[in-house]
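Hi everyone, sorry if this is the wrong subforum. Our group has a chain we'd like a structural model of before ordering constructs, and none of us has done structure prediction before. Sequence below.
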Amino acid sequence: MADAETESDLFYVMGPTGRVRVNPVIAIGMVKYTSRSGRIAQANVAQVLFGQADESIITRTVVNIGEDATLWINFLGGDAAIGEPDSIPLKPGAGATINTWAPVSIISDTADAPFTAMEG
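Answer:
Right subforum, don't worry. Here is the predicted structure as tokens:
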């Protein structure tokens, strides 16, 4: 057991009048995001959404803001493919966030389908 007069523990610190209870604080770093938003250039052709990243990239997010088309995203570095393993579907209104440095690709069977994308 810690001596209350000379030591502190996780939830207490020594104040001017003795131990003072404190709440632990978790530092959260701020991130500057870069937009990669756009539209599907050509139906049924995978396009690069995010290129290979370095350690400064913490997260990548994609949201299907269209009303009709399903988008398919591959976060593993390969080409996205409709209905294939390693590609995840994003129906209208759906989104996905993942921490990866690998290239990310996107595909849809509908040209000009809009999406919001950001990395930071």
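For your construct planning: The chain has no helices and eleven strands. Residues 34-119 form a domain with the Jelly Rolls fold (CATH 2.60.120.770).
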